[in-house]
């Protein structure tokens, strides 16, 4: 069914893939070769993959990353994670109703010795930090084994269609995330001392200093490194609210995976919870995939992400509600609406402020936690260990690229393979790239009406400098010692050559060019445009907006073009009355009716809020134990099964911490659940040397 597939995209190319047949509940359906079972089901409009064994509630995609097991289906008789398993021609797929039966054992498994390898440096994670470290070590000829659980290197970079912020010189700022991934991968593959295992999941770090890796997804292998670098990234935080397990509630990473990797449209109308960079960027990605964004809420009085990301979304016509929280996801089998409310200064919902909006997906982007369990174990077992990127500290991917580079040099120095220590300038660049968004200044517009001038709609200090490298005459200046500086134009109104490279290349889409030369009363305004070419044509009337989405008027598109090297960003030109020309920052993409609240807000009828989504344990059950004096999460696990599910407490442990806080229990009185290897689900037979094909669970 074509409408569920993304068949055109302003940034991503759509590969031509062979169609294959499979069955779902006995019905013949079409998939594309090479896609996951989940993508094939979504492409056919199927979102409910099974029902929970405890309460029969519907289950579907949640993480799209193999972490949560909510997407389990039965494929040719075997339980598999639909988000990880590739579909095959003729595959017979059934929903997973309750607990799946174990596959039959046809004959006793053949046991083989476990393969063992040694390496100088083992890097866990082939995202921006791991790749950069491997490049640094590869340059010095240090033997490295880099393992990553995906089939493609790049980590979350491969989902990012937007241009990156940061420093052009240090971390490829101004280049799209997907293209940075390709550049890093190409570079690392040039170094013969770096061996790469993709589709290889790290399962555990053991006390005998060996690391268990599921090599290529099929063969269990023990690796003994001299030094280990953990660059395993971050996992998304979850939120407790009514209806939070309904299919259609996704983590932001899952949504980006479905849209930007799998090229399926998981929703028509999306609601976003969380105003950090992840939520803001995901909203932009949804609009590029022609998914309507109903609104975005943030519990704090201001969004935590970059103002340019927030402004961009508001200019697209997405309403942003700060000081708001989600009360419930509503629906029977999947999300049909969301109910939100305003919060007071203690983040408590204010009665009477509830609103509901129709939507079919809710994206949760409320922060990230480092995936650092391998690092903790390595330290515990005295393996020389380093950590980089989000596994060390949550920050932008540009910062992960740079910390990876630093760790690479530090490791080489530790091994005696490099005489140089990390230059102090690198440490300073790293600190700048990690920095939180700074102060916001009043926007300055040039008070001129002749010649040509760029106008900056970027008025918050953030680490970003591509504009300064784009002007061929060097007329845009950002302090290179501290690239958080606001850009300034040092030319006059006759020095700009109107190349429009700054308009096309600003990652925040926050530069316009105002050209008074032909008609000073009706100057031409060049505006960056990154949506489908078919949505905009010459002579179309568009709503032009100010930096923060204020409506300025309705104007005609007089030109739509690209420039050399504009890398898929188009430039729309409007002829504007003089009074508003410098204020115009964008064109509305999404008209407002999508945002109207329903006539009455929806009361969700679920019994209680689920905290442990694997085992469907409610907040009420856990709260009651806390009130009885339970302080050890291992005991809570024993009594309720919370933290005992397929995700290994990765989703619910932080929510249970939060319940302790709400009950005013000091965190030092709480005992965390014991973390025991292994950290990922894996068929047990693999530890006895079976290969996956013949594995019996
Ligand atoms: S959605 Fe497949 S494992 Fe989480
Ligand atoms: S949510 Fe997975 S164990 Fe609780």
Topology:
Blueprint: E1 19-24, E2 27-32, H1 37-43, E3 50-51, E4 58-59, E5 72-75, E6 78-81, E7 92-97, E8 115-124, H2 128-139, E9 144-147, H3 168-171, H4 177-188, E10 194-197, E11 201-205, E12 211-215, E13 219-230, E14 234-236, E15 249-251, H5 252-261, E16 269-273, H6 277-288, E17 292-298, H7 307-315, E18 320-322, E19 324-330, E20 337-342, E21 355-358, E22 361-364, E23 368-370, H8 373-380, E24 385-387, H9 397-414, H10 424-434, E25 452-456, H11 466-470, E26 476-477, E27 488-489, H12 501-505, E28 511-515, E29 524-529, E30 541-545, E31 551-561, E32 570-575, H13 578-581, E33 586-587, E34 610-612, E35 617-618, H14 619-627, H15 633-640, H16 653-662
Parallel strand pairs: 1-7, 3-7, 8-9, 8-13, 9-10, 13-24, 15-22, 16-17, 16-22, 17-18
Antiparallel strand pairs: 1-2, 3-4, 5-6, 5-7, 11-12, 12-13, 14-23, 19-20, 20-21, 25-28, 26-27, 28-29, 29-32, 30-31, 30-33, 31-32, 34-35
The structure holds FE2/S2 (inorganic) cluster (2 copies).
